[in-house]
UniProtKB/TrEMBL annotation:
<protein>
    <submittedName>
        <fullName>LysR family transcriptional regulator</fullName>
    </submittedName>
</protein>
<keyword id="KW-0175">Coiled coil</keyword>
<dbReference type="InterPro" id="IPR005119">
    <property type="entry name" value="LysR_subst-bd"/>
</dbReference>
<feature type="domain" description="HTH lysR-type">
    <location>
        <begin position="1"/>
        <end position="58"/>
    </location>
</feature>
<dbReference type="InterPro" id="IPR036388">
    <property type="entry name" value="WH-like_DNA-bd_sf"/>
</dbReference>
<keyword id="KW-0805">Transcription regulation</keyword>
<keyword id="KW-0804">Transcription</keyword>
<dbReference type="InterPro" id="IPR000847">
    <property type="entry name" value="LysR_HTH_N"/>
</dbReference>
<keyword id="KW-0238">DNA-binding</keyword>
<dbReference type="InterPro" id="IPR036390">
    <property type="entry name" value="WH_DNA-bd_sf"/>
</dbReference>
<dbReference type="Pfam" id="PF00126">
    <property type="entry name" value="HTH_1"/>
</dbReference>
<dbReference type="Pfam" id="PF03466">
    <property type="entry name" value="LysR_substrate"/>
</dbReference>
<feature type="coiled-coil region">
    <location>
        <begin position="61"/>
        <end position="88"/>
    </location>
</feature>
<comment type="similarity">
    <text>Belongs to the LysR transcriptional regulatory family.</text>
</comment>
Amino acid sequence: MDLRALRCFVAVAEEGHFGRAAARLHLAQPPLSRRIRDLEADLGCRLFDRIPTGARLTPAGEVLLAEARDLLERAERARERVRGAEAGRVLVLGTVAGAGLEVGPVALAALRRDHPGVRVRLREAPITDPTAGLREGRVDLALTRLPFDTEGLRIRPLGEEPVVAVVPADDRLATRPRLSAADLAERRRFRLPQGTDALWRAYWFAAEEGTSGPVVASVEECLHAVLWEGAVGLLPAGAAQRHARPGIAFVPVDGHPPSRVVTAWRAAVADPLVGALADALSHAAGHAWAGPHQ
């Protein structure tokens, strides 16, 4: 399959709209639509259902989305490795749900001062993988959130971030000044896919397997589940600024532990540059978060 067609497909799937995907890819909409049609013809199945608000994945499209993301990531990783053979070292930093991104620019500037030949590439991992690709070797260091199974990993705390409930704007819960996780218990909550880390699933109050809640793999999919299916759930407080949009309300949550932002890397890997990046992130976080992150 052509990688350009797969990039187009992923953009439409993530945006849920052909027009927004075309703008994101800096393409006119007709060529984008033709590439999707050609991809559907090549695979012999429909990938999207056209709906009034845009485009929704078919069951075949949902299967392809996971495969396409993996293929594109592997292609990009191969490209970086080839480039790295003749250029400076490339460190891949994985992130989950916007963890600690505000400290990134300061950390990167510090790293470049001490290691001017090193480049850092950011990889946004799906929320189904709290290790951000560490265990599969897709990233060198993760900027992520506890809790999850940390066996075989080294963890360094950076700070804390409260959580918020994300609910439809016309829901009565949206009018409350604050909520608790228990307030969401009887509501239709989004779910994480089968096999997701149990500690991670429990912390984010994900619905149990076998329930009717929509399955999500990204923050955008969480928001789509709220808008299109009336689902509710928990997200980091920073989502209220990064993902604000009509139809969705973010309500502070009491009585739930804050999200603990950390760096993580494989304990068996002794790479001085990975350690240097971890140190730079810790130093930057120390200045950004004098206390719990609010």
